[in-house]
Write a structure and sequence with these properties.
Length: 705
């Protein structure tokens, strides 16, 4: 073969979705476009069926994983949120217990409950120190026994539990074995049900093999299933899909109807497009609201739509996972689209109105057989069709951008009437009458109590003079969220949380410790008070036998929670600094980017640690070149430092300042550094044992006369 022809052949071989068959259907790796027109529907469906037949042959599809009884639940888990482990409805750090019932009761009340939950204990905190994804899993409150009981609490309520895997986590501690084996063993031990592959186009077969080897098979769910061959062992997936006016269909559900794709568009505030997409395809929905600690609640209108869709999908699940699905079955109205899910005795039509206005009257013409009865399952009433030739024409109403459902059945009642009565009761309230607005949660800053006012500078502290009009300007360094309302934090003078903050403030004189609190200083506190926190997981983890390692007395104390730091400060008669005090002490009144000026100076901070295992930090006071104009040292690049705490109804978080010497490599998803004085880090908090970190310390402040 000539080189030019060979090059063309190689390019063609690797073009996505290229097939030898002559198909006019447009598709990508996740979805398939609908027909160009209603008149083109029959040709489109025939073409699509032919493509599916050939595609399954090409990928050597084997449905063995879909026939496994222990994985049969995957095709029926229609509603699955991603839940941050830091979700306040899920864990009570004061009572030190998981509150699974509280979490589930809230979702049941607001949108009808869930079938599965993806619990997220890692990102965005991962990378603040060298703990890897498996370490952070073990750091969940109660350890493995506590996690096992928590999962049992979900199972008691009929909810399956998944956890994520991050293949990009290759910069933190090396666990010493293939991650698939670690994960399979870990999740088998606690009785989890599945794995979500973060950023994965397919969870690899190695995970299937490792999971089966434990005798506790897990369901596999990639974030983006884009590899058709992997459909055989990935029973579930996500789809961050936007559907055009003519609804697209799920590529992988079309190839295998038992495959459950969860529509996931976490930042959307209007969920109608995603919900219509899910209902039209008879597939799942990712009801994700706590997005990395940023609350994006499903509106009342969309929550009620989800309640009704989920109720219908659960009741007719056997139809939705059966072979024979016919998307884009003919309808009688412009902008109304339907899918047909047939069986021998029953057929379900899932219908969506893509028009902004109500559409009433004749909607579908259904093949009619003697003895068939027809029901508007969305409104819970029986329909009286008009028989025309061999067709039954059914009429019903759908709200603008709304939903409809029709059941044709020749079976006996079989419990249908009680179900219809429930739907009829729900339908009494129109979706358009419900609140469709976006709710931004108000945050509260935790009060820092003042100390006594010292007349003279206490030992080890620096007097910071006041300022009548100092410009406090700072931005959050969260990786995601753009500048939406609700990102970052809400200071008392702001009406909502936002990423960028600016305020001219009066700063009262105060004292700030010259360096972070050291191991030696903290040991004096522990020895004097016998302090030992109730949640002592990871407490002073770097100490051995009740004391810091030899020669480490002048290193900053680490592995202390915000609560531990506050206890120490109270014992010394001090307090933690307000964030603006910390920044003023580091920055002075000229707005500089670093304590020493506006240009980064490598010799003003510790040498960064980019290894997979953290070394011990430098001693405090070793980098005097990095001191601020007031003489405060180690404000940048040694250890992160606790300052403020913020809470809203669903999340607690702390503001960390200064950045640290530890910088794991290999991924942009690790907790980002905030060395510049106009930046801060936001650490999501769950429980002291998980919040403690090998890269977080603190220093204390005191009020001045």
């Amino acid at each position: 073969m000539r080189p030019a022809i060979y090059a063309i052949a190689m390019v063609a071989a690797f073009l996505p979705n290229l097939s030898a068959q002559d198909t006019r259907v447009r598709m990508d790796s996740a979805q398939i476009e609908g027909p160009d027109s209603a008149d083109d529907g029959a040709r489109w469906l025939a073409d699509l069926r032919h493509w599916r037949m050939e595609r399954l042959i090409r990928i050597g599809f084997d449905d063995a994983q879909y026939r496994r009884p222990e994985l049969a639940w995957t095709g029926r888990a229609f509603v699955q949120p991603q839940m941050m482990a830091e979700e306040r409805y899920f864990y009570d750090p004061v009572a030190r217990r998981y509150t699974v019932d509280r979490y589930l009761d809230d979702l049941e009340k607001r949108y009808g409950g869930i079938d599965a939950v993806l619990i997220w204990p890692t990102y965005p905190n991962i990378g603040i120190d060298d703990r890897n994804q498996f370490d952070l899993f073990h750091d969940l409150p109660g350890g493995m026994a506590g996690i096992r009981q928590m999962i049992a609490d979900f199972h008691r309520r009929g909810v399956r539990v998944l956890f994520p895997v991050m293949p990009w986590d290759q910069g933190t501690r090396d666990s010493g074995e293939p991650m698939w084996e670690t994960l399979a063993r870990q999740l088998a031990e606690v009785g989890a049900d599945g794995v979500n592959g973060d950023t994965l186009e397919a969870v690899p077969r190695a995970m299937r093999v490792a999971s089966d080897a434990t005798g506790h098979p897990l369901a596999l769910e990639p974030e983006f299933l884009r590899i058709d061959e992997a459909l055989g062992w990935n029973n579930m997936s996500w789809g961050s899909l936007a559907s055009p006016f003519v609804p697209a269909i799920s590529r992988h559900k079309w190839l295998e109807p038992r495959h459950l794709m969860n529509i996931c568009r976490r930042w959307d505030r209007d969920k109608r497009d995603s919900l219509q997409h899910a209902w039209f395809n008879g597939t799942g929905y990712e009801s994700w609201e706590n997005v990395w600690g940023i609350w994006n609640q499903i509106s009342g209108r969309d929550a009620e739509a989800l309640r009704r869709i989920a109720k219908l999908e659960r009741h007719f699940a056997d139809l939705l996972v059966a072979a024979g699905w016919e998307p884009h079955t003919p309808t009688l109205r412009y902008g109304v689209f339907a899918s047909r899910f047939p069986s021998a005795e029953r057929t379900l039509y899932t219908v969506v109105n893509r028009n902004e206005f109500t559409v009433a009257g004749e909607q579908l013409e259904i093949p009619h057989t003697a003895g068939a009865r027809y029901y508007d399952v969305w409104h819970g009433v029986e329909l009286k069709p008009v028989i025309r030739g061999g067709g039954a024409v059914v009429s019903f109403e759908m709200e603008g951008n709304g939903y409809g459902g029709v059941l044709m059945t020749r079976e006996a009642d079989g419990g249908l009437q009680p179900f219809l009565a429930g739907m009829r009761e729900l339908a009494r309230v129109k979706l358009a009458a419900l609140d469709s607005g976006h709710r931004v949660l108000a945050q509260q800053i935790t009060r820092i109590a003042p100390t006594r006012r010292a007349a003279a500078t206490p030992e080890g502290m620096v007097r910071i003079p006041g300022a009548r009009a100092w410009l406090f300007r700072v931005s959050g360094i969260e990786i995601e969220g753009s500048n939406q309302s609700g990102v970052d934090v809400q200071y008392p003078w702001e009406d909502a949380a936002r990423r960028h903050h600016r305020r001219t403030m009066r700063i009262e004189p105060f004292y700030l410790e010259r360096t972070p609190v050291t191991n030696a200083a903290f040991k004096k506190f522990v020895d004097a008070t016998k302090y030992h926190p109730a949640d002592d997981h990871n407490f002073l983890r770097h100490w051995v036998g009740g004391s810091y390692p030899p020669g480490a007395g002048n290193q900053p104390v680490r592995w202390v929670s915000l609560e531990d730091a506050r206890a120490y400060a109270e014992w010394t008669g001090k307090r933690l600094p307000h964030e603006w005090e910390w920044q003023y002490a580091a920055q002075g009144d000229d707005g500089r980017l670093y304590p020493w000026g506006n240009q980064w100076e490598e010799d003003a901070v510790p040498v960064p640690d980019t290894g997979r295992t953290m070394r011990a930090p430098d001693e405090v006071g070793r980098h005097s070149k990095g001191a601020s104009v007031f003489g405060v040292e180690d404000m940048t690049g040694l250890v992160w430092q606790w300052t403020e705490e913020f809470t809203d109804e669903h999340t607690r978080a702390a503001i960390l300042r200064g950045g640290s010497y530890y910088r794991p490599q290999g991924s942009r998803w690790y907790f980002p550094q905030a060395y510049q004085l106009n930046q801060h880090g936001k650490l999501l908090m769950m429980a002291p044992g998980k919040d403690r970190s090998g890269a977080v310390g603190f220093r204390c402040a005191m009020d001045a006369e």
